[in-house]
Design brief:
Elements: H1 4-16, H2 23-69, H3 74-83
Length: about 80
């Protein structure tokens, strides 16, 4: 996994799970906790990604409007190219 926050989430969930009992039960509970935390992380990550996509699309649309009106400057043209 490339995302450092993902690894941290998994490690923290594993360490914080304090199930007691025999080995297989503890393993099962730890895996359940890791699964729950990963699901929460995924929802937050997707939400953040969608927010970034929306902001990028909005910025490109603003540049398109400026381009149509003829007020787009060179710096904005370069930034628009980077966004695409």
């Amino acid at each position: 996994m490339e995302d450092k926050s993902f690894r941290e989430i998994v490690e923290k969930a594993w360490q914080e799970c304090s199930a007691q009992g025999w080995g297989a039960y503890i393993l099962k509970e730890k895996l359940k906790e890791v699964k729950r935390k990963v699901k929460e992380w995924k929802v937050a990550a997707v939400r953040d990604l969608q927010r970034k996509i929306d902001a990028t699309v909005q910025q490109i649309n603003e540049y398109d409007k400026k381009e149509q009106s003829g007020t787009l400057i060179a710096k904005e043209i370069n930034h628009k190219m980077e966004l695409q």
